[in-house]
# Entry
Amino acid sequence: MIHNQRESVVKLLNKDVQNYINANLHTDLHSLLLKKSPFSEVSMQEIVQQIKGKQVAEKKFPFLLKEGIIFPPQLNLEQASSEKTALYKSEILKGQKFIDLTSGFGIDAYYLSKNFGDVTLVEQNTELLEVVEHNWGILGRKARFINQKLEDFLNENQETFDVIYLDPARRDQNKNKVFLLEDLSPDILEIHKKLLSVSNQVIIKLSPLIDLKYLISVLPSVFRLDIIALKNEVKEVVVFLSDASKKGIICNCVNLESDEPAFSFTFGEEENARSEYGEPEKFIYIPNNSILKAGVFNLISEKFGLKKLHPNTHLYTSSEKKDNFPGRIFEMEVVDSKSIKKKGQFNLISKNYPLKPEEIKKKYGLKDGGNDYLIFTQSKKGKIILKSV
Ligand SMILES: C[S@@+](CC[C@H](N)C(=O)[O-])C[C@H]1O[C@@H](n2cnc3c(N)ncnc32)[C@H](O)[C@@H]1O
# Structure
């Protein structure tokens, strides 16, 4: 650790400073920033950074709510993975040598390297890596910490690894979010061949907004894709590269913190599958967002024996309930728009329907919430409204 950084960590870990931080965890940070720091050697900005860190940690990585842990600036907190998605990824990895080439705040690295004996973290940001090294000391975890640009590291490196992990920075110079591979740092398209010469398994975390067809077309070595949703919000697309020959790309869709089962398929299976179409029956199925992101619309119909309502409506139906569906299942009936009472309270869903939920709410004078559902959609016969029974 460079001298200044070590000094500033020591000052932040002073008991009085830590007590002040803990006493202000719920104070408005804007007003706190306007105050003068009660400590001559620690600025209010440094204090607020630690408070912000603890607030984020509470939701995203509670394992860091420990005495002695130091938090980096907000951008590094935002870029870090959540403990829950990192835990999912850690369960599918095992080996001897692990390297994270874009360590960042090290959340992914901490979890993903759990089943490895030899761990290396590479990060270009000196202060950030020092914070991680300090924290890993507190957490009792050993690693090699390399403060270098990963391109330079790869040029000098003579070693091979069982797993290489990367979570490229997804922001451009203007801090806007970007979703093309060539706009990421590092540029995966430029280094992927080099990565594959150093490891048989390269794992890259990408934005949920990345287009999967584009991804597969520009990275021919993809053999597996995991689409990770948490409580039905897609958080990560994780891509696995390998030089080994492959029989089609496997895609795993998961919705963490739900009872819904994971769904795995190959893109070839989806291409060969055909949906059966039909009008609504007793049960209506809404696939979760990891399934929708994967675009696995026909295989779902075939595998679960469900009829699809319309080519562009990703809703399915059956007369008998099919359990183990990766999404929500409702018992519903088709209703006439005239039967919808004003001021009725519903959870509104609009899928492949000209009006958005807000517009439907206004048009029918409805209130949000409650236990009942209304789905405005289209079957092959035209516009329909479904109501939960
Ligand atoms: C999205 S963050 C990683 C977050 C990390 N997975 C976590 O869970 O905390 C990306 C990191 O990659 C680093 N980075 C980007 N390009 C790099 C490069 N060419 N060499 C080394 N580090 C790089 C950035 O400094 C940033 O800290």
Q: What stands out?
A: The domain at 78-258 is CATH 3.40.50.150 (Rossmann fold). The mean pLDDT is 94. The CA atoms of residues 101 and 304 lie 41 Å apart. The chain has three domains: 3-71, 78-258, 271-388.
